[in-house]
Amino acid sequence: MAQLPGLLKGLGITFGTMMRTFKNGSNTVQYPHEKEAPPVRARGVIALHQDNCTSCMLCSRSCPDWCIYIEAHKELAPPRREGGKPRQVNLLDRFDIDYALCMYCGICVEVCPFDALFWSPEYEYSEPNITDMLHDKTKLSEWMETVPEAPALEVGADKKKK
Amino acid sequence: MNTLLGVVIPYWGQSLLRVLGGLVAVLLPAGTIVYVFLFKMMSFMQSRLGPMEAGPYGSLQLVAEVGKWLQKEDIQPTNADKPVFKMAPIIVLMSTFLLVVVVPFGPDAWFTNLETGIFYALAVSSISVLGILMAGWSSANKYSLLGGLRAAGQLIAYELPMVLAVMGVVIQAGTMNLQQIVVAQNAGSIFGINTFGNPYVITQFVGFIVFMIAIQAELTQAPFDMPIAESELVSGYMTEYSGFRFLIFFIGEFATAGVFAMIASTLFLGGWGVPFSWFGWTSMDSVSNWMNIVGPLIVFTKMMVLTFFIMWVRFTYPRFREDQLQRFAWKVLIPVSLVNIMLTAVLKVMF
Amino acid sequence: MTILNDPVSAKLGSRQQLSYIASQAADARLNVELETEGMTLNIGPQHPATHGTLRIIARLDGEQVVWAEPSCGYMHRGYEKLTEVRTFPQVTSLINRIDWLGSFANEVPFILAAEKLMNVEAPPRAQWIRTILFELSRIANVSLFLGDLGVQMGAITPVFLAFRDREYVLNLIESATGGRFHPNFDRIGGLKDDLPAGWIDETKVVMKKLRNFCDEIETLLFGNEIFQSRTRGIGVIPRDVALQYGLSGANLRASGVDWDLRRDQTIPLAYDKVDFKVWTHPDGDSFARCWVRLQETREATKIVDQLLDGIPSGPVMAKVPKIIKVPEGEAWVSTENPLGEMGYYVVSRGDLGPFRVKIRSASFNNISITPWLLRGVYVPDIITILASLYFILGDIDR
Amino acid sequence: MFVNQFLILAAILFCIGVYGVIARKNGVMVLMAIELILNAVNLNLIAFSMRNGSVDGQTFALFVIAVAAAEVGVGLSLVLLIYRNRRTISLDDLSEMKG
Amino acid sequence: MLIAQNIGFAIIAAIMIIGAIRVVTTSNVVHGALWLVVVLAGAAAQYVLLAAEFVAVTQVLVYIGAVMVLFLFGTMLTRSRIGRDSGLNNTYWKLGIPVALALFASMAIALVDSFGSEKMPTDGAIVNTQQISDQIFGPYLLPFWALSFVLLAAVIGAIVLARKD
């Protein structure tokens, strides 16, 4: 084998790959028909858990390219306990993420102090029109269904988190 | 070719058959090569599947591609020399059509049976150089001009080893007529063993290798694809072409590959014939009529085998540099084929 | 003197004027020595050989280059300026995009510089994982180079093999960090998260595949006589020239300079815990550069394997305040990135973000040698030399 | 087919070639006109070969083709040399007898 | 069949004459070369009409495949521009017309006078390639050798002339 000229060995490599593809199938998937599952941590789309959001604007401010738009107003809500004072809550009017601008850095998810934002590995939401890439709060809430459980950690990891 | 399978065909019918046959003989190999090798084999060698959507296993992809190219705008650069620019692809494709004319497909299935068949083939194959030079010059693009000049230098340089490689076959067969070369191979014998006839790939192995290398270069396939090197010259002389004219270049490239492979199979692998001893034939006249139907299939099969090697090499190797290519032609291929001719001539005289 | 009084050159700015004068001088030399008319060929800004928008102005005589100059800046995104209006966590997400193929490796020196300013050190487990991801991004980067090398020379298959096996590495990076290309995983004081379960075993399998890929590429490309004839003796950079032009990384080591920041400096990464060989090659030609990179990819898989075996347990994040304010000061940290030495000079005024960041990226310095290197070569060799120098456009035009 | 139809065609080509040699200044164009003349001669040779039923005409035509190829090779290299030295291939500018 | 041949001759001859005139009148060198290709191809076709198959193929191989490619190569190397090129003609180019016409008139008179309406033999022996080779390697061996030396000298001369040093 070592004496063979490199030209012939190279031909062997391509032929071998061809035979392997014949036998074991290709390394690619035929996308619309079969799909590869992205890893659990994959940053596909940001899901919004509306109830947790206090419209504190931290995410909006920490976004490196300012693609999160939040508008809210204050309202009095019935007290939690019987006879308590009515609570003042922030009600979200608008929570938009412009995915045409988003660069999927994940800083917003990380800074959110109330666990209102989550990553979902969903990736099939491209639109022919760039203005449709602006997801409003109902659409962002719909993504919540696709948010997976956080994966178990590798051996030796520090268990306590946050 | 007045009668085909016992049916008398009038002159106009013969002409029509010839034109249709020529179209089939050029376009069918081109389409098959593109689908089987360019789409599928290349993909498998790169561990992917290639086109799968259009038709079963992507078999109609070719139709889609042709449709796409036909729809595209036919862009002509402002500074281009328009008539020359338009003529160039046609001349390249014309060379292919002129080339297929001499390939025999069966005892009676041929377009013309020229006495100087292989000489004619070598002559018309050089016409495509003109088309390429025209394309390179008229595009008003430096990359195109460089590509055209490279192509011309390369094609001229590799025509010589090709001619010299063919010479060995011509000496051994004693004729330039392709039909007779086929008969000589299938009716012949090697050292008295006539089970396999005498395909010249065995006795002219050096010539066969030189011829295959030379047609690889004539077709500007890797590792000799400097004229259209996409990473250097951005497809060279084809840079400015789009739409239908690019399609013609594209068809020309693969059709020429097929036709050259047919010629190579005729010269070295016995062409349309099977060894005559299998069926007890002795000469051209005793060949059965059904070879006219089976013959084209045999040529086609041999053509596919040879194009497989051409494409396999194309998908595997990186390309030479221009001066290395010239050095390879002049210092390796031409001396080797000259020695081959000398040996063949000496052996021919001895035996 | 006629050149300096040329009316055309007078209208141009000083920098263009210089290159105009140089090109005129080249013309004059060309006409005197070779007695033929030259031709200016612009390779790029849109050209497959420059993998991005780099423009190489080459004056040719026939197919021989008489004078060549890279003209960069077509993709300049102003990262140094952008960092001045971002906070430290935001900066990491930006500098991912400098060398987009080995993006995790971009974050490390910046974070290390910030940590140096803050006097924080990441816990050992974080350092090990950082090193593993660093080497993984090196593999992801260089394996693409190995495939792309073939494409630049006309072989179309290696690049698909490279993409096939690089995919495994990218999947690993994605499953650990969440981002395939732009991990944004490094934080001041450690890492964003720990590795997911099963990652180590998976990585070991992938490293085996990658070594197999290296063998394949070695047979398919490096053993190929055509490839060798295209690269051996082409674009030779002698040792002293390489040092003078400030080359770094594999380009420098291929010229015989045994210099690797992974080994030669003490930074809080786990390189001192593993045993690896720094590959050098005495030739300094294109083949040497490619060969050194191939060996480095192999070596990187071995480094990853060793690190995976000895990964310590513990937290991945040191104790740092939630809102990071980096104290006043200046720090310079550079690491051995896939492309060469990449360093950040961070100046902080005690704000949320840096006051000034100077980025020393490897490619920008590496292509500075092209005018010297390309003189006298043939047009096809420009391509092989550029491919073997290996630059990423984002790394040149930051 | 008359014999004359070929001969007169050859004569027309010959005369066009002569006109080209006289009228053209560009060296390459003059070479092309000479090619026209040579082809006219070849056509005559072949026509006579057929008329006389002998092979000699064709043999000579082959010789002429070979010589023409040699002539073009030398002629074009001359033109290239002149172009390289003088930046022009106009034959009128070459009247001076020193290099 | 003879009618077909005559029609073929007429068409090809017309194309050849137009092509030849364009060669000497066009204002672009590359166009001139391409028109010359048309004339040469027409000549090859005429050879086929005259039953000289081998010469026709040689014409295509040598002239179109080699000589014209050389011409185009040379003109492209001397950077001929796309578009009209001034200064291709001499100042006294008009002188060529009467000269050519006079030459043609004298030749035509001589030809008509000597051959009149003589016809080509229709049953003449078809010359095959073997006969040509027998001629070349038989009685014409010495000219063939001389020609080989001419070609060799031309090759060496061309190389000597084109070399830079």
From TrEMBL, chain D:
<dbReference type="GO" id="GO:0042773">
    <property type="term" value="P:ATP synthesis coupled electron transport"/>
</dbReference>
<dbReference type="InterPro" id="IPR039428">
    <property type="entry name" value="NUOK/Mnh_C1-like"/>
</dbReference>
<dbReference type="GO" id="GO:0030964">
    <property type="term" value="C:NADH dehydrogenase complex"/>
</dbReference>
<keyword id="KW-0472">Membrane</keyword>
<dbReference type="Pfam" id="PF00420">
    <property type="entry name" value="Oxidored_q2"/>
</dbReference>
<protein>
    <submittedName>
        <fullName>Unannotated protein</fullName>
    </submittedName>
</protein>
<keyword id="KW-1133">Transmembrane helix</keyword>
<dbReference type="InterPro" id="IPR001133">
    <property type="entry name" value="NADH_UbQ_OxRdtase_chain4L/K"/>
</dbReference>
<feature type="transmembrane region" description="Helical">
    <location>
        <begin position="60"/>
        <end position="83"/>
    </location>
</feature>
<feature type="transmembrane region" description="Helical">
    <location>
        <begin position="6"/>
        <end position="22"/>
    </location>
</feature>
<feature type="transmembrane region" description="Helical">
    <location>
        <begin position="29"/>
        <end position="48"/>
    </location>
</feature>
<comment type="similarity">
    <text>Belongs to the complex I subunit 4L family.</text>
</comment>
<dbReference type="GO" id="GO:0016651">
    <property type="term" value="F:oxidoreductase activity, acting on NAD(P)H"/>
</dbReference>
<keyword id="KW-0812">Transmembrane</keyword>
<keyword id="KW-0813">Transport</keyword>
